[in-house]
Amino acid sequence: MTPTALDLPQVDPLPEGTAKFFALCEEKLGLVPNVLRAYAHNIDKLNAFSAMYNDLMLGESGLSKLEREMIAVAVSAENRCFYCLVAHGAAVRDLSGKPELGEALVMNYRVADLSPRERAMLDFAVKMTVDSKSIEEPDRQTLRDAGFSEAEIWDIAAVAGFFNMTNKMASAIDMRPNPEYHAQAR
């Protein structure tokens, strides 16, 4: 069998704070996401990844948790990131209560039943993913016209940028999603 990111030697024993974090994941999610297990070979890298993720995806923002997960999926679809499509597709299904929304975003966000605000947000995140050098003021103005503030535009770009990085890491190290994600919120 080919080694994967999960085959890296793990810090053993985990530092107390990391062990508590993993226990909290198990309690709230019913699993420890494989992305965290992959990073656990280096606690400093795990902490940096977790801090950025928690800030962008769970922290204060004018964007809803669902909107941030939708960005994660649209970006991951462009990058064809298996891990993130499975994990964050499940989150969209769960948060929206609409399995078809999660499926549409995984396949092609353009076929999803989206509000004009959501469409503008995802168009921007995808443009940033496929051709960021071509983003100009009219692209940001489109977001303003859809009702986004300057802080929300920053958050859209930050979430899209984060998932572009994590998608590439996941693909590079053959990170695989937890099997439990496949059946969630269907």
Radius of gyration: 17 Å
Contiguous low-pLDDT stretches (5 residues minimum) are none
- How far apart, in Å, are the first and last alpha carbons? 31 Å
Average pLDDT reading:
93
Shape: globular
Taking the sheet with the most strands, its summary is: none
> Under the CATH scheme, which architecture of the largest domain would be assigned?
Up-down Bundle
CATH class of the largest domain: Mainly Alpha
Q: Mind telling me the CATH superfamily name of the largest domain? A: AhpD-like
Task: Please provide the count of β strands.
Answer: 0
Total helical segments: 9
Order of helices and strands: HHHHHHHHH
Helix content: 55-70%
Helices and strands: which structural class?
mainly alpha
CATH topology of the largest domain: AhpD-like
Describe this entry's structure for a reader.
The protein is mainly α. It has 2 domains: 47 residues, Single alpha-helices involved in coiled-coils or other helix-helix interfaces; 119 residues, AhpD-like. Helices cover 67% and strands 0% of the residues. The protein has 9 helices and no strands. Helix 4 packs parallel to helix 6, helix 4 packs parallel to helix 7 and helix 4 packs across helix 9. The model has no long low-confidence stretch (mean pLDDT 93).
Strand and helix layout:
Elements: H1 16-29, H2 34-39, H3 43-58, H4 65-79, H5 82-96, H6 99-108, H7 116-131, H8 137-145, H9 150-172
Helix pairs in contact: 3-9, 4-5, 4-6, 4-7, 4-9, 5-6, 7-8, 7-9
